[in-house]
Amino acid sequence: MPADERFAVRRDRARASVPRPLAAAPVPSGGPLPDGLALRGRLATGARRPETPRGSGRGGPGSRPPRTGRGGGPRRAYERARRAWDRPLTAYYVILGSSLLITVLGLVMVYSASMIKALDISKPSTYFFGKQFLAAVIGGALMLLAARMPVKLHRALAYPILMVTVFLMVLVQVPGIGMSVNGNQNWLYLGGPFQLQPSEFGKLALILWGADLLARKQDKRLLTQWKHMLVPLVPVAFMLLGLIMLGGDMGTAIILTAILFGLLWLAGAPTRLFAGVLGAAAAIAFLLIRTSPNRMSRLACMGVSEPDPEGGCWQAAHGIYALASGGWFGSGLGASVEKWGQLPEPHTDFIFAITGEELGLAGTLSVLALFAALGYAGIRVAGRTEDPFVRFAAGGVTTWITAQAVINIGAVLGLLPIAGVPLPLFSYGGSALLPTMFAVGLMIAFAREDPAAKAALAMRKPGVRWKTMRRRVKKRPSGER
Question: Which pLDDT score, from 0 to 100, does residue 193 have?
């Protein structure tokens, strides 16, 4: 075979071995292509597949199904809440906001709960509210002053406050100077309708002086010895307790004892030492309760649901009646029935019962939530500082407010004996409100002293922000900004 014919045969064989594109099937008129024919037609014509959105393909970064509120919502909310709580100024705002809300709500409830009591003693309906409002204004000034004072000045005032408080508590026991209210000789007459209870300032004095004492001993590494931990803290606390018990005020003595235990706990007292002091205090408290018929009757009123036919447990039973008649949202402000003479002291020790009757379960839970937020913020301030004085003082104030709130609310609920202590920042009583607001200002000052909080507050000042903006904006060659 000639060479030209052989070349032509090889060329035809090579062409025959190349796969030919599939021919498109005829399209039926008026109908869509079948799936198989459409796919073969696209492959044959070389048409590109439509691009899918980025991340929507299988295995891509966005291939997960969209989060629903059930799975992603709570988790996102928790993460946001945790990040918000970890901010430097969170404790500062929580302490300031919760204390102010408790005080304002307390003013409203004092006015509502004391109207009938004021009219009953031939006074204007705003008599008790006016005195409480004046005390709140003075207390607000004290809180602002304490919040602006440096920590060194607070430490410098510890000894003067303790000495003045002890002098006033001794003065209460002098005949003709001290006066008795509800059987307790713990008051000083200031003239007009104003009285002063120095034992309320004893709580603040013990916290400041005890925190300064323990901080100085910790700096010298003396708290590892039990004698330095107890002396002179425990003897001075027992001296204050003795002066209080001379007047018969068992409730304030319980709060002072709780503050002492809080300071010892923060100082790292060993368990056997802590248990020993606790056992001694419990034995003294049992002896004082056992030898007093009035205190025994209060102890017997725990958990009662009906008053005694002879008139006993009247206040405890009617406090339960007030809470039970409140329902979910209460009967409304001013619509309480128990304050019309059935419930003694509706604006002081049992104001929480009137709150439950007029604002219901929602109102009482709101008050509890505010106290819980205040206590938790105080624990955060005490736990995050490196200054031992700040840790002891913040822990002492937190112990004071939370312990007093628990004792008061527990007595209203019938879970604890009636101790006669007011609800902090909420009940009527200027002598209790003034040192408590100063103590809140103390915690605000401690929250501001945190280095991260200081930097955050400095950045929020208008001058700093304006200077920062001026540094960022560059001048143009023409002189325009």
Answer: 75
Q: What is the pLDDT of residue 55?
A: 45
pTM as predicted:
0.79
- Containing 342, the helix (H) or strand (E) segment is none
Whole-number Å distance between alpha carbons of 435 and 12: 110
Tens digit of each residue's pLDDT (9 = 90 or more) over 199-230: 999 999 999 999 999 999 999 999 888 888 88
Contact by Cβ (8 Å): 400, 208: no
Distance from chain centroid for Cα 72: 28
Residue 479: pLDDT over 70? no
284 vs 49, more confident: 284
Please state whether beta strands 184-191 and 194-196 pair in parallel, antiparallel, or not at all (unpaired): antiparallel
Q: Which two tokens stand for residue 218?
A: 């910790």
b/e burial code for range 265-289 (CB count within 10 A of at least 16 → b): ebbebeeeeeeebeeebeeeeeeee
For strand 194-196 and strand 178-181, is the pairing parallel, antiparallel, or unpaired?
Answer: unpaired
Burial of 221 (0-12, 13-18, 19+ CB in 10 A): exposed
Nearest Cα neighbor of 161 from 212, 127, 95, 215 is 212
Write phi, then psi, for 419 (nearest 5 degrees).
Answer: -95, -15
Residues paired with 241 in a beta bridge: none
SS3 33: coil
CA dist 351 and 132 (Å) reads: 14
